[in-house]
Amino acid sequence: MAYFVTDAPRRDLYPEIEPFASGWMSTEGVHEIYYEECGNPNGKPVVVLHGGPGGACNPGMRRYFDPKVYRIILFDQRGCGRSRPNASLEDNTTWTLIEDIERLRERCGVDKWAVFGGSWGSTLALAYAITHPERVSALLLRGIFLLTKKELTWFYQHGASMIFPDAWERFLAPIAESERHDLMGAYYKRLTGEDRKAQLECAIAWSSWEGETVSIQGPDARPDKFAEPDFALAFARIECWYFMNGGFFPEDGWILKNIGRIRHIPTWIAQGRFDVVTPMDSAWSLHRAWPEARLDVIPDAGHASTEPGIIDSLIRATDWAASL
User: Fold this and answer.
1) Checking DSSP bridges between strand 44-49 and strand 70-75, what pairing results, if any?
2) Which of the residues 83, 88, 119, 305 is marked catalytic?
3) Alpha-carbon torsion (288, 276, 58, 170), positive or negative
4) Which residue of the set 275, 282, 296, 312 is catalytic?
């Protein structure tokens, strides 16, 4: 099995870079998708899929790739980041995002590209690859999330709550005790309701719960963006919308059931041993179903892409994919 733990000297991010092109891409509906291109215009194409759903790209995501080697294409998914309109749930599903990825690939004149994604980005990367395997040259994944009922229950009902009880209390606070048997449902009612004050309070609480659990350093290491109203509103509304709808997959466990379609694609999986947001159980299940994929377990990391061991693994992954 291609499962390993490495003790080699750790790599760091590539230098900061600026886009050489950016703009908005129209869709067939209300959404306009912000995208940017960085690195070498004639380099190996890679598309970056951010997390959430409802997160956004940031300048740090450009730095996992050698800018002399890669043509790095990033975009903000529907309803978030610089895409417009903000926090919109209209025509916002896994399948419309996959349509956007294909639309962007054609716009950029790319025949085949590597796909890089962490957390929800890994979910979307896998779903895209299963749908369009002929367009994927490699998969570079972090913090595997298969968007199953088991994973959602773990993080939003009972499981992660036992590891971060202090943060969990803050997550519970906006919800009446009588509704806490179905926290996702209770949050969804408020995040899509007309009470703007309750909507914003719940958005910040939902977003902060994830922000406080992403790192093995705990709540004190929460990135500031998770408590910023504009970010939190899009992040919470879109995440809750997707999760209440099971990721819009035809059945629970759809990704693993269709993994045979992509087992030929060279793949690197970086997984923090102590990831509480997307526990290693999912990466292990994927690895067992797909032994050809390379699973790199980082022994001192959680979920955050900015933890030193995760950075090291992802840099090694992109260097590896560049040589394929």
Assistant:
1) parallel
2) 119
3) positive
4) 275
Q: Is 158 a catalytic residue?
A: no
For residue 159, give the amino acid letter: G
Residue that has been written with the tokens 């629970």 in this structure: 252
Rounded Cα distance between 252 and 254, Å, is 6
The DSSP bridge pattern shows strands 294-298 and 113-118 to be: unpaired
Q: How many CA atoms within 13 Å lie on the side-chain side of 276?
A: 23
In angstroms, what CA-CA distances link 222 with 144, 226, 302, 306? 20, 7, 13, 12
From the candidates 303, 305, 312, 313, which is the catalytic residue?
303
Give a three-class secondary structure readout of 258-290: CHHHCCCCCEEEEEECCCCCCCHHHHHHHHHHC
Distances (CA, A) of 306 to 61, 63, 217: 10, 11, 12
Show pLDDT as tens, one digit a residue, over the chain (324 residues): 445 555 678 999 999 999 999 999 999 999 999 999 999 999 999 999 999 999 999 999 999 999 999 999 999 999 999 999 999 999 999 999 999 999 999 999 999 999 999 999 999 999 999 999 999 999 999 999 999 999 999 999 999 999 999 999 999 999 999 999 999 999 999 999 999 999 999 999 999 999 999 999 999 989 999 999 999 999 999 999 999 999 999 999 999 999 999 999 999 999 999 999 999 999 999 999 999 999 999 999 999 999 999 999 999 999 999 999
pTM: 0.97
Torsion-angle region of 103 (φ positive above 0: left; ψ -120 to 50: alpha; else: beta): alpha
- Taking the C-alpha atoms of residue 208 and residue 11, their distance in angstroms, rounded to an integer, is 29
Residue 46 pairs in a beta bridge with 72, 114
119 as an active site residue: the answer is yes
Name 267's bridge partners: 139
Report the residue count for the chain. 324
The verdict on whether 137 is a catalytic residue reads no
